[in-house]
Design goal:
Rossmann fold, 22% strand
Length: 198
């Protein structure tokens, strides 16, 4: 596989990475396209197959794993899989675009490891774990038990932040937007320079 740049945004659930990624996708100069992850979980309300995720059965997901079809994958909770199909990257690169990922921490670091030169890996950090809990509760999409599971996972994920290229603290969204724009623009400009020099 060869093509554009890979831009990874990872964070604990509720940190605001999805909001930041959606903002970046609106900027034509960045020439981004969203990498749609595959998942074995059920769609939430308003989620569309082939737009938010590729919703596939656990059996089909396991069959893709066996065939080596994933760039990265993870069993986040028991029988609850998420992953990036290699065909997804090929689809975006074929359009001449850069790939942006809204992905969990483990997946983000795996992509960085496989494509160290092409990948910009950004960790979005919430101001605090308490603030994270408030944001997750505001969503009203999950039970108290599920929120507590996410909070426990968040503490582990926060410890991986130093392994990323950059950390953006999402305290004020406007500032996080600006910082993210600058990082991505810089990363893409490097690629253009390399091509011009060849």
């Amino acid at each position: 596989m060869a093509g554009g740049k890979l831009i990874v945004f990872s964070a604990p659930s509720g940190s605001g990475k999805t909001t930041i990624v959606r903002h970046l996708l609106e900027i034509p100069a960045l020439n981004l396209d969203f990498s749609i992850s595959a998942t074995s979980r059920e769609p939430r309300e308003h989620e569309i197959d082939g737009e938010d995720y590729y919703f596939i059965s656990t059996e089909k997901f396991k069959s893709h794993i066996k065939n080596g079809d994933f760039l990265e994958w993870e069993e986040v909770y028991r029988d609850n899989f998420y992953g990036t199909l290699k065909t997804e990257i090929e689809r975006i690169w074929a359009k001449g675009k850069n790939v942006i990922f809204d992905i969990d921490v483990v997946g983000g670091l795996r992509i960085k490891k496989k494509y160290p030169e092409e990948t910009l890996a950004v960790f979005v950090k919430p101001p605090s774990v308490d603030e994270l809990k408030i944001r997750l509760k505001k969503r009203k999409t999950e039970s108290e038990e599920k929120i507590n599971m996410r909070i426990a996972k968040a503490s582990v994920e926060m410890a991986t932040a130093p392994q990323f290229d950059y950390i953006i603290e999402n305290d004020k969204l406007e500032n996080a937007f600006k910082e993210a724009e600058q990082l991505v623009m810089q990363h893409i400009s490097e690629k253009k320079r390399e091509n011009e020099e060849e």
